[in-house]
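Supplementary notes for students who missed Thursday's class. We covered one full example, reproduced here. Read the sequence, then the structure, then the short commentary at the end.
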Amino acid sequence: MRVPALRAAILVLFLLAWEGVARTANPLLYVPPSAVLPAFGRLLALESYPDLVPSLLLTLREILVAYALAIAAGLGCGFALGLNRTIGRAYGPILAALYAVPAVVWYPSLMLFFGLDAASKIAFGFLLGFFPITLAVLAGIRQVSPHMLVVARAFGARPLVIFVKVMVPAMLFTLVGGLRTGLALSVIGVIVGEILGSRSGMGALINHAYGLFRTSDYVALVLVTLVLIVGSDALASLVERRAQRWTD
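Structure (token representation):
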């Protein structure tokens, strides 16, 4: 009970501080929580932005496609590099170096190749989710104990059985952690891509409200997006906990 109470106290203090500061600042740029709640209600009632639901569904579709592609490519590339030591040693450092490059650097090129439609947002979300999944597969394969593999081979286990019964359980927690990180980054990539340049989606609505100084609507849209991000991470957290119990 202490943790929820502490979180509630921090939230109340934050809202009170926000209310106090916003009331003494420029109302065009700073909006208090008391003004955000009515704007949030109008947003949910589809009064301020009637196209909220189609925009939200479009963003969700882009996230799902980007994450599915990141999983497919990340698992395939990760296992290809991890199961072949020579290829892994050659290309593993290159992947780590590319992952260290700020992702926003790639977005202008993606817009050039894919345009301002959903394809560039999907590509950006895929790019952000691909690297952590691939690197998690590599790390998981490398942490499998060689002694377990030797024992399995000594008992006559086939390569497929060794992979399913020995390697996957040993690397599952690391893999699920990478999948969770990849999901979070795919969500962020799609939304940031929409904000940087899009004609539709939640990011486009946020950019529209911000550009017209509709600060209360802007904060309300950010709250809706925040719920989307936190909800996806909470779902991934449940999967990660189940994986941890299975490996334990």
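Commentary. Residues 159-196 form the longest helix (38 residues). The chain has one domain: 38-247. If anything here is unclear, bring it to office hours.
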